[in-house]
Amino acid sequence: MSPDKSITASTATPVPWRPTAKARPNRSHESTAFAFLLPLVALEFMLVVVPLALAFYYSLFRVDYFELTSFRGFGNYVTVLTSPMVLKAVVSTIVFAAGSLVLTLGVGFALALKFEADTRTSVAMRSIVLIPYVISMLVGSLLLRWLYSSDGGLSSMALSSVGMGDFSILADPNAAMAALVSNAVWRDSAFAMILLLAGLKSIPLELHAAARVDGASAWMRFHRITLPMLRIPILIAVVRLLIHFVNVLTFALVLTGGGPNNATQTMGLALYRLGFVDFQLGEANALATLVFLFNIALIACNLALFKQRKSP
Amino acid sequence: MTPRRTAATWRSRRRSRRLGGLAIDLLIALFALAPIIWGLSTSLKPARDVLAYPPQLLPSQPTLEHYALLLRTGIHHFIVNSALVSVLTVVLSIVIGSLAAYALARLSFRGRSTLMFTTVALMSIPLPSVLVPTFMLMANIKMTNNLLGLAALYTAYQLPIVVWLLYGYFSSLPVELERAAMIDGCTRLQTLRRIVLPLSGPGLIAAGLFVLTFAWNDFVVAVVMMSSEDVKTLPVAIYGYLGFYGRDWGPLTAAAMVSIVPVILVFVAFQRYFLSGMTGGGVKG
Question: Is the pLDDT of residue B148 over 80?
Fold first, then answer.
């Protein structure tokens, strides 16, 4: 007997080979599908869903080095939400995410427009600007730290040419925040470029040609054709970059260490320190749950945009 | 003005514009690569020149002493750990991912669209926000400081994108060959292994490379899960050097180069596969 009965039966009744909206579930398909999907579902459930549920559970207790000692209800949430450290991290995260988003998107858009054509130079340039994105985030931030450090001499030399030779970038709160934003722009602009390039390529060339015949200037064509046609790709880039910037930990941990005086301690770093440096695991789980609720809102936006892109 | 002269001015104007464009390209490339080039230059300088002021842009006496120091202190152990975890992650995610992607592309079953939707949702979960609870779970089941445990986590994080890429690729293959194989008595599993996978080279490469670089590069998950010296991956070791060597940037930049040079080489060789992973789109074979 054939292990898959749908084959022998397929001469009599057509079996749906490609699942379509109307296709009715088929029993032999169902059991095969169950077996094929089980590893995926089991792994995602165990290593992604269970931790999130655990975070909420642990967040209700006082946790002393992995021992749940006493039930605190929402006490950890109150502690976290009234902690000056967390509030400062919220402010730093907003400054960092807003600054990085605007600049990354701007630079990414400029790069996409500049390297839109598939000439040999443009293709080569696209891979060059992508290198900061494909290398390890840790190493990227480490190299920037060396570039900005006053020990290295390179930044001191550049600054002394404008009469600020003694200025140490990473020791000044505002300059350190700017350095942190520059890290994001340096690494992620090319990512924005790639997302926007896909959109640019889908604009029919005839539109631009027709507008040119009608005498539209380059700015008019950008403003009236390119921007409106890129609405969805731009929104996708905004949401994906925001998810990244709100949560990222490596930039702050490695480049500035959160300093000086916690001025650049963003939410990702605050969460890391609360959990793995201070070992306040109950509070850390409460904060993780709160951050995750905020992320869910962003992820929902991402999903809505994803659906729009797939069904134009 | 003669037509000839007009053409000549036009040509020279075009040439100067092209030179201007080249200058801008060079400036952009400089911005993108300056930190890497500066790090490479530092890693090749003898220790006494590293902190010299004014700084030498290029090493006057290039030396590999920092790389030799790293080897003496056993950086190769961390490289081996990273390579092991990366390969393990690629194998796990390709095996689990192609099974799931095949089911989504070719089988009809209840809950199919829910599963697709969940897969896409899982793609954008930001890792730093799940580190604390994931660490508690892994500590409870005694899977911290375990290379297989780390690979399992990486697989869980990368499977959604792998499934999505392979789903796109499998759906684009003609179904007739599979039908023929099944009429010849192949099971679904055999059809997947003998017909679908051999036809899916570009899709598998794209997914595999994406996972490989993720696992090789990851720092945040590894630094939390791997604290004992013998299982540290390369990025965790480099972060450790940052505390250990402090202001001694020679070995630090050398370790940085060891981590990124393989990635840059692989990226340059397989560029278009990477792009499909980033946009979540299909690869054209």
Answer: yes
Q: Which domains does chain A have, with CATH numbers?
A: 83-266+294-310 (1.10.3720.10)
Whether the pTM exceeds 0.90: the reply is: no
**Sign of the CA dihedral A194, A199, A204, A208?**
negative
Phi-psi region of B111 (alpha: psi -120 to 50; beta: other; left: phi over 0): left
CA distance A77 to A225: 48
Q: Does A60 touch chain B (CB under 8 A)?
A: no
Size of interface A-B (CB pairs under 8 A): 284
Q: Are B109 and A29 in contact (CB under 8 A)?
A: yes
Residue B231's pLDDT is 93
Report DSSP state, residue A264. Answer: T
**Is pLDDT of A56 > 70?**
yes
Mutate to test the interface with A, among B106, B132, B188, B219 (most CBs of A within 10 A): B132
pLDDT tens column, B242-285 = 888 777 889 999 999 999 999 999 998 888 787 766 666 544 33
Kindly report, residue by residue over B7-53, the tens digit of the pLDDT.
Answer: 667 677 777 777 778 889 999 999 999 999 999 999 999 888 888 77
DSSP state of B128: G
CA distances from B208 to B98, B172, B194, B211, B215 (A): 11, 19, 19, 5, 11
The length of chain B, given as a count of residues: 285
| Residue B133 distance to chain A (closest CA, Å) | 5
pLDDT at A259: 77
The answer to whether the CB atoms of A194 and B278 lie below 8 A apart is yes
Interface test with B, best of A7, A15, A26, A36 (most B CBs within 10 A): A36
- In this structure, are residues B97 and A40 in contact, taking their beta carbons and an 8 Å threshold? yes
Chain B interface includes A299 (CB < 8 A)? yes
- Answer yes or no: do A54 and B137 touch at CB < 8 A: yes
Q: What are phi and psi of A67, to 5 degrees?
A: -100, 125
Number of H helices, E strands in chain B: 15, 0
Establish how many alpha carbons lie within 13 A of residue B230's alpha carbon, considering only the half-sphere containing its beta carbon: 1
Instruction: Evaluate the CA torsion angle A280, A283, A286, A291 in order and state its sign.
Output: negative
Of the partner residues A33, A139, A295, the one whose CB lies closest to the CB of residue B238: A139
Chain B residues close to A302, C-beta within 8 Å: 124
Q: Are A208 and A225 in contact (CB under 8 A)?
A: yes
CB contact under 8 A, A139 and B256: yes
